Every structure is written in structure tokens, then in C-alpha cells.
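Case study 2.
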Amino acid sequence: MNWEALAAIGSILSAVVIAVSAVNALHQVNQLRRAAQLDGSMRIFAEFISQEFITARNFVLSQIPQKLQDPAFVDELRSYRYVDLEQHPEYRVLYFLQLVGTLVEQQLVDGPGVFQFAQYSIIKSWEALEPIVRIQRESTNNPFMWRGADFLYENAKAWLERKGQQQGFTDAATGKPFKVDQLR
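Prediction:
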């Protein structure tokens, strides 16, 4: 065997080692990404089941329609300069949906995992809060206000529709295919 053949074999072996190392590094990067997403998801899940969030969500789901009839409440919503979470627990829900929506949109947290865990809270909270969002977008002249929460709602709704169709869920009363609008 001559030196040129040995050098060629050495080069090939080096290339194989580099390729295997690159594949291994990509696998490790993927595992680190998944671990970071899991950590982020677990923190989000913990907030969704925290007493503070549940209390604020209950307020949103049960009291917002009546509160929107109060002109003083609506005026406070129009003035976004000072937010008092004691007087306006709906902001706790809006801020959280905004945060989660932004993380999902930027692919820093796995959307389907969040949707599977909290689709009802996301969808029903946003539907109750959407009139507040309209008021604030108008009063601040900012069409992007609460856009992360809006993104989260739209994607959770689409995910739930897809899952319902894939799994053949139906409306118990009508037997028709599942639609998100059925949620009560």
C-alpha cells in the first residue's frame, strides 16, 4: 500500500468521524431544545392551574359580560396607562394569554402541547375578553395590541377542530361532526 492510498483512507475516515460527530451534535441540540420546551411548557401549565389564574379566569368567564355594561369599567379599559390587577383581574388572563401566544408563535414553546392542555381556557377566555381587546385596540389605535393572545386563540381553535375531526368526535345532541362553536 502506498502513502497516497493511506492518506486517502485517512481522509475518508476523518470525514466519517466528522459526519458522525455532526449528526450526534444535531441530536444533542434537538434534545436540548426539547428539554427547554418541556421546561417552558411545565411553567405554563403550572400557571394555568395556579389559584390566581383560575380566579382571574373565573372572573372573566362569569363577570365580564356584566362588567362591560358599566361605563366606568369601560372607561378604565380605554385608559391603558394604569393597570390594577385587583380591580381588573381580566388583565392577568390577557397578559398570560399574550405571553403564551408569543412563545408559541416564536416556537419557543410547543403549541400542540399547550393546546392539548388548555384549549378550553384559551378559547373561552379569549371569546369573553375579545370585546375588551377591541376597546383597547381602538382606544390605543394599536391593531397589534394583544396580538399574541389572538394568535393563541386562533391556533388553539384550529387545533381543536382538527383533533375533533381526526378522532371523529361528534355533537352528542345532533350527531354532526364536532365544531369548536359547540363549547359551552
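The radius of gyration is 24 Å.
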